[in-house]
Amino acid sequence: MNAKTNNKPHKTKQKNSVAVLIPFINNRTLLSHCLSSLRATSDVAVHVCCDEPGRPKDVANICKKFAANLIYNEEWLGYCATTNRLASHAQEDFLVFCNCDIMVNDSWRDKLMRTWASANNPGFVSPKIISMQDRSLNYCGIAFGKANAVALWTRSLPHPEISSETNHFQAVPDCFALIKHETYETAGPRDSNFPVSWTDLDLCLKLKRLGFTNISDGSCEVLHFRHVSGEKRMILDSESRAYFFAKWRDTIDVDLPRWLIKSFSSARDRSRLRGKTVRLVIICPLFDRIFYIEAIQEAFEVQIGDMLEINTLDKHPSLFSLLTIEVLKTNSPIIYLFKNYESFYQNIVWFEQRKGKKDLIVDYYGNADFADSLFSRHRAII
After folding, report:
1. What is the pLDDT of residues 34-81, one digit of tens each?
2. Contact 280/333 with Cβ under 8 angstroms?
3. How far is Cα 104 from Cα 130, in angstroms, rounded to an integer?
4. pTM of structure
């Protein structure tokens, strides 16, 4: 690998020393905010690898300002190879993989280290990843169905209580995640055959196969500048999804049903529908649809009388034009299964015609709330 460094690593690891590893390309502003927050909240080593040819001086100036070690790639290597190179360069006892669009809060280091120390065979320990734009939950733990991986509680606001607990998952997002350096080396480097959206899941399952436990630390939060949803890229990337599940089918435990039931069962006022017969309207392309249907029936103790499935919301943004008059006029409660809450808010004028009907909004990520609660929240925002 043709690459040069302007900082030589230490020769020996210091006990409980922590290195934050940042693969960087493109956005100088976000990098500056990330490094500033790290320096303001913790005394850790920071290593940045610039994956841009030409050894740009402005990146060097930013790293110098915040006392971050900088190495350059002499040619574009991509996320996986750059992250693997950073891990090889670091000499600290613990590694924290960190995207350059993360901002940390006080005590993040102590919280993650405490959770790691109290766990049995910990692999990755990841905090709640909170959207910098609207403070909704961006990432937490990952659940697996038979056909896809689901980032639980994405876009939820307020965050469900269950996300504030310390939970063990088969995989956690590693846009900010702590791991023992020795453990990372045992699991091996990231698989460059996967695109970014799948590489962290692949690495987590390597750890799972070796007997390590990946943990979401609900007591710790960091901010993330949300770009295009990685979940959306994963859904569209059918080739990588097929390769991933072919590789890990014997290792993955299908735990999506359990997490959906647990999540839906924690919804506020869920007893409002107990014993009722409801209509189910599915308004999104849906993997593992049977898991959602069964979880809704068990958690809310309802019977599904009939079901309408609409998979063209992206092409026809007006929900009103897609639903039949029969659905609009029905007096029985309707449970809507959306991709996410944003789809509900985009069509809130239509839903206001259903006020008082005890309609329930459920989404792909395991969020659930009654429409009247979402009305109130929407009015408070505007």
Report:
1. 999 999 988 899 999 999 888 899 999 999 999 999 999 988 888 889
2. no
3. 10
4. 0.87
pLDDT for res 308: 82
Q: Scan for tokens 């209509």, then name that residue.
A: 279
CA distance 163 to 139: 10
The rounded mean pLDDT for the chain is 86
- Give per-residue pLDDT as tens, 340-365: 877 777 777 777 777 778 899 999 99
Q: Which string of b and e fits 202-239 if b means at least 16 CB within 10 Å?
A: bbbbbbbeeebbbbbbbebbbbbbbeebbbeebbebee
Cα–Cα distance between 145 and 296 in angstroms, integer? 16
Looking at residue 215, what DSSP letter applies? E
Distance CA 12, CA 257 (A): 46
Domains in the chain, start-ordered, CATH in brackets? 3-257 (3.90.550.10), 266-381 (3.40.50)
For β-strands 334-338 and 360-363, DSSP reports them as parallel
